[in-house]
Amino acid sequence: QLEGKGGLDHAEGTRMLLPRSTSRHKFPPRHKAAGQRELRGQSASTAAWEQRCSVSPHLTWSFCRVINAEKSEFNEDQAACCQISVRRREPGLEEDEEWLILCSTQFLTGHYWALFDGHGGPDAAIIASNYLHYCIKQKLEEIVGGITEAQPPMHLSGRCVCDSDPQFVEEKHIHAADLVVGALENAFQECDEVIGQEMEATNQSGGCTALAALYFQGKLYVANAGDSRAILVLKDSIVPMSSEFTPESERQRIQHLAFVFPKLLDGEFTRFEFPRRLKGDDVGHKVLYRDYFMEGWGYKTVEKADLKYPLVHGHGKQARLLGTLAVSRGLGDHQLKVIDTNIEVKPFLSCIPKVNVFDFALHDIKEDDVLIMATDGLWDVLCNDEVAHVVRSFLAENRTDPQRFLELAKCLVCRARGKKRGHQWMLDDSHEASYDDISVFVIPLHNREED
Question: How far apart are CA 251 and CA 292, in angstroms?
């Protein structure tokens, strides 16, 4: 049983970072999930395996990950899961030392899973895996009085200062789910602040993407800041629960920030997008371009200032923000600067997630319906349809296996990792396999209330 106290242990050789006692943020104690077992496979020169699962008579979730292709000394992916119990807390009361309370009828209980893909080292991902769920618990407790009402009140105290208050809430179509979404957004922001304080205090650098799923009051909330992905694989459909945030997908937001605050570019970059890096011979000619307000393309007469390095440069997996980062949202990176400059990357890197909500009351969930969460190591080589095909085929062929969700997670990792052929890792179709760390959660959706 997860018992709401555990996360997943970290890759061997990494250390858990905690804020100094002077920090205004208090970390909860960390526990290993009861009943959790760890399986270690053989290590090769190009890959080291880590598989983990937790199985109880009611709740079964499965997790598998692999360190691939000597990308890094340690696995920069991190993961966490726990049960979160939310209680009403009176203003001014101190937090109990027992920071997650076992399920009781007087508490609202949810389940949480998260993946963190580190870059520049695993440190930011480790802090996030130890702290984001604590931030979520705190933010949910701050608004618990609103989410227990049929319609959230304007004032948590229940007062009605203006006669129009209830009408305002109704006209804005504010529901309990909107408060949960806001709590998740605030939790990501607070976790980002903690990471910034801790990384500065310990002279560390780096950041991470964050993908979190929360099952709460009959709804599934998936919050994403980065390029990891979550999909629901249902019997007859695929429901995307997140979208990747890359310099390309967020071009307009990034360009608009540079338009409003041009000093952030320090005269080293141009905010305009061109089909390629311009050269001196382009000056004076009209070339294709886009600005922050444009979905379409126009022509611009090239000036010398346009020869500067593009704010967003490259395409696909090669796209970079300020020539530095391949993602446009994530946690950490407070100390990151463009090489050989004083230009900070953080102002352009948003920590706020996009939250998608799935209401189970509106769907007929079948036995083999699952949520798949994975870092980009999986999605770099497998599309949604390919993953869904593997999921449906595997579960149909292994209905009697009590470990089938764990085996499915392992199967997906194996598919993306491929097989070693000579000095390369290849997929079955002879395309290159993933060379990134790969982490996968498989979470069954059936019989949720009993669990």
Answer: 7
For the residues of 338-352, what is the DSSP string, one character each?
-TTS--BSGGGSB-P
Q: How many CB atoms lie within 10 A of CB 39?
A: 12
In angstroms, the CA 95 to CA 87 distance is 11
Q: Are strands 298-301 and 229-233 parallel, antiparallel or unpaired?
A: unpaired
Q: What is the DSSP letter of 7?
A: E
pLDDT digits (tens, 9 = 90+) for 385-411: 999 999 999 999 999 998 999 999 999
* Separation of alpha carbons 61 and 39, rounded Å: 15
For residue 313, give the nearest of 258, 251, 252, 263 by alpha carbon. Answer: 251
Query: pLDDT by residue (tens digit) across 312-369?
Result: 998 888 899 999 999 999 999 999 999 989 999 999 999 999 999 999 999 999 999 9
Q: What architecture (CATH level 2) is domain 6-245+351-444?
A: 4-Layer Sandwich (3.60)
What the block records as the tokens of 388 is: 């869904």
- Is residue 168 a contact partner of residue 153, using CB atoms and an 8 Å limit? no
Contact 280, 351 (CB under 8 A): no
Pairing of strands 31-32, 6-7: parallel
Q: In DSSP terms, which residues pair with 208 in a beta bridge?
A: 118, 331
Q: 323: alpha, beta or left, given left = phi > 0 and alpha = psi -120 to 50?
A: left
What distance, in Å, lies between the first and last C-alpha atoms of the chain? 10
Task: Give the Cα separation of 355 and 188 in Å (integer).
Answer: 11
Cα 83 to chain centroid distance, Å, stands at 18
Q: Where in the chain is the domain with CATH 3.60.40.10?
A: 6-245+351-444
Q: Strand pairing partners for 440?
A: 64, 374
Enter the tokens of residue 111.
């389940």
What are all long-range contacts of 291-298, with beta carbons under 8 Å and residues at least 24 apart?
A: 291/255, 291/259, 292/251, 292/252, 292/255, 292/256, 292/258, 292/259, 293/252, 293/256, 294/252, 295/252
Residue 354 CA to residue 33 CA, distance in Å, equals 28
Tokens linked to 209: 């993407």
